[in-house]
Amino acid sequence: MAAVTGSAQTRFSRRTDGSSFRDWASEAFEAALLMATLDRADVDTLIVASESDFFTLQLNPAAILAGDLGLVGVATMRVEGGGASGQLAVHAAAQAIASGQARHVAVIGVDPSASQLPAATIKLLYGYSFDAWTDGMTGTSATALYALSYQAFAARIGLPDKCLDQIALQNRANAMLNPNAHLPRQHKMAEIADSPLIASPYRRLHCSPLSDGAAAIILSHPDALPGARGSAPRITGIGAASDHAQLGARQDTGTFTAKRKAMQRACQQAGIGPADIDVAEVYDAYAGAQLQALNVLGLSETLQADLDAQHFAPEGRLPINLSGGLLGQGAPVGATGVAQTATCALLLEGRYHPELQPKRPLRHALADTHGGVCTTAAVTLLSQADAK
Amino acid sequence: MISYELALPYSLEPGWLAPYVEALQKGRAMGRSCSKCGSVSFPPQRRCQCGSGEAQWVRLSGKASVLLRTHGSDGTFGLVQFEGATNKAVTRLEGFASEITDGHLIAPPSDVPALILAPSKSRSTP
Fold it and tell me: Chain B: nearest CA to A220, how far in angstroms?
């Protein structure tokens, strides 16, 4: 099983400091390499996750970053799967290690989703990440598609809209203790409910922000671990799955079927189940998406009661999105999944931001990411090195 | 800071979707009828859920009923069921009052194949 020897990310924010995505990628990579106690000459593979050339205006970004990072000569590739790009890159790296082809893989997720193009242009481009011929040409927004899917889910489960407010409130409160977070906020419930309506039931504060930033991890073969990193957490299960890109083609509009399959596949490989998970970073591009995810990941069968009982809060039985998630920490698309996995690895090692690090020992962590309205699902399970 | 504008004048060929796109530009609904199981998809799916790739193009009425709707600054959109189709569709809803559930496909303002539904008021009045 691949070990996560290095984990790092930049601040997620709207950058106004004159830096570029190449600077952020470099910053995250150098910090991950330092943590891994490796030299750049040890890295034999570079995998870059970046959602869209439209954002970076750089085709083949892995080749450019290899040059910037002093890695020219290594195997390079770019992995893309919409919002799931970062987690799919982690999967590609884990597979490269498992196959024996690679010893140390650098995974870098990066996107300038905030500062390089106007928000309206990004929104237009996101519309083409569903079915370009139907949703895209119709001008359907991501928020509208997510809203329709959530409506079907909420009606089936019987969830009131206040659950959306609870998710946004908790994730942004967690972000208050994360120095890398884009939107640390101590919201009042009324503030969320009074924010502008984007696509009912979603209001602005139920939506994740567009962010700039990068994240990096180093995955190492267990036979090639540096001496100081023998106890680094392992990636014990990866699972990916797909669904119809068109919401109307699905049997059940409100259920993230692909995520359920991805979770089952990851659990089967890891030999654990949802009840074994101690902490999770769950894909919350929208507040309701987190609720839909918790349901199909098997992490909650009584969502409203669990929310009311604060089960997913930092002191609860299963802390969710301690980082703040996409809602609080932010969403530079390609970086998202890499940052989720980095967060899980740091949590397992007890090296996360001190005020967010749970006091009790953690054995298993889950990173959950998807693209589209869960069209492309990618789940990664991480465990302590000495876990079964 | 480098200000840079990129214009991308695409020439998109719809390929197998050509009958759908051409009909939609006139506000008409062309679906795919599966040769094996008879399911009709609109918007069309290249391969039927039964697994068959053999299908014929069929003209649908373009009438649809709204199952779910969302509104806000992004516009008004609905998950709708087109008459004669097995699958559902997401369309823009134009001029739909909240009590209206029946509509029909209309031609988009440009030649872009947008799915736009206008209310069929006579059928919805109680």
Answer: 38
